[in-house]
């Protein structure tokens, strides 16, 4: 299985720079999970050494939580997962399209 590239620079979501931290273990409410958005430290913790598809799903999941928080939305965990999965599929199957969105003439 492909390993992820650990992207360690901050990522900007709606004008806020979130630090990305790769950690051995992520725990939320005493439950182990792959990632977590931590608003009070403006950071996203991601378990290191996730397989690439799991890493992508987890990063998108936490990014959607950041957007959810920013706009005072109230998604269920399942909806956050569905949105992350939909975006992961969009990115995976349309890399040229995604690239074209970022290109300027
Ligand atoms: Zn979540």
Quote the beta fraction: 15-25%
Task: Give the CA-based shape.
Answer: globular
DSSP summary: helix tally: 3
Distance linking N and C termini:
37 Å
Helix content: 40-55%
Q: For this structure, what is the CATH class?
A: Mainly Alpha
Specify the structural class: alpha+beta
Strand order of the largest sheet: 1-2-6-5
Give the mean pLDDT: 93
By CATH, the topology is Arc Repressor Mutant, subunit A
CATH architecture: Orthogonal Bundle
Largest sheet: 4 strands, mixed
Can you put this structure into words, describing what you see?
Helix content is 42%, strand content 25%. The chain has one domain: Arc Repressor Mutant, subunit A. The protein contains 3 helices and 6 strands; from the N terminus they run E-E-E-E-E-E-H-H-H. The strands form 2 sheets. It has a 4-stranded mixed beta sheet with strand order 1-2-6-5, covered by helices on one side. It has a two-stranded antiparallel sheet with strand order 3-4. The protein is of the alpha+beta class and 105 residues long. Helix 1 crosses helix 2 (77-93). It has helices at residues 52-70, 77-93, 95-102, and strands spanning 11-13, 16-23, 26-28, 31-33, 35-38, 43-47. The protein binds zinc ion. The site of zinc ion (ZN) has 4 residues, from helix 1 and helix 2.
């Amino acid at each position: 299985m492909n390993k992820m590239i650990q992207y360690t620079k901050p990522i900007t979501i709606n004008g806020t720079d979130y630090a990305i931290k790769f950690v051995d273990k992520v725990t939320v409410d005493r439950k182990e999970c792959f990632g977590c958005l931590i608003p009070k430290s403006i950071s996203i913790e991601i378990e290191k050494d996730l397989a690439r598809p799991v890493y992508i799903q987890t990063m998108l999941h936490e990014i959607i939580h950041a957007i959810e928080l920013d706009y005072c939305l109230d998604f269920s965990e399942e909806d956050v997962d569905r949105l992350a999965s939909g975006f992961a599929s969009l990115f995976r199957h349309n890399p040229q399209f995604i690239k074209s969105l970022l290109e300027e003439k």
